[in-house]
Amino acid sequence: MRSTVRAESCASGDCISMYGLAPKQRAVLALLILSRGDRVSIDRLVDELWSQGAPATATKSVQVYVSGLRKALGDGMLTTSGRAYALELEPRALDAERFEQLAADGRQRVAAGNAAATPTSRSVVTASSSQS
């Protein structure tokens, strides 16, 4: 199973639009994505969502946002450990990680004197161009 997270999230072949989520719920998702699988504490989420004067219900609100994200993303992608959450993504599930790997591969090819495009790099460029 390949899961991706972008404007829409595809887990188990079903895509869920992230545009339908509340702004703070999207912010929670963004923070979890940026953490790249590391745990993010409820306290940090509260601090990030309400930089000035979190309401008394902030912790409960974060729990509600996470519950909704679990439903949207599917089973097993969003885990809880104590008072922290993590988004469990497959290796290189994020576009940024795939880009970093392809860039590193390209640098190695250039350093080795073999800078010719590979089928993988051509397919990535073609796919990126067709999505524009």
Q: What would you note in describing this structure?
A:
The chain has 132 residues and is α+β, with helices and mostly antiparallel strands. 50% of the residues lie in helices and 15% in strands. It has 5 helices and 6 strands; from the N terminus they run E-E-E-H-E-H-H-E-E-H-H. The protein has helices at 23-34, 42-49, 58-73, 95-111, 119-131; strands at 4-5, 8-11, 14-17, 40-41, 78-81, 84-87. The strands form 2 sheets. It has a 3-stranded antiparallel beta sheet, with no helix packed on it. Strands 4-6-5 form a 3-stranded antiparallel beta sheet. 12% of the residues are buried.
Secondary structure elements and pairings:
Elements: E1 4-5, E2 8-11, E3 14-17, H1 23-34, E4 40-41, H2 42-49, H3 58-73, E5 78-81, E6 84-87, H4 95-111, H5 119-131
Antiparallel strand pairs: 1-2, 2-3, 4-6, 5-6
Helix pairs in contact: 1-3, 2-3
Strand order, main sheet: write it out.
1-2-3
The gyration radius over C-alpha positions equals 18 Å
Helix/strand class: alpha+beta
Biggest β-sheet description: 3 strands, antiparallel
Strand content: 15-25%
Mean pLDDT: 77
Task: Identify low-pLDDT runs.
Answer: 1-9
Give the beta-strand count.
6
Q: What is the gist of this entry?
A:
This protein is an alpha+beta fold and 132 residues long.
Which key features would you list for this structure?
132 residues; 50% helix; alpha+beta; disordered N terminus; elongated; 6 strands; single chain; 3-stranded antiparallel beta sheet; 5 helices
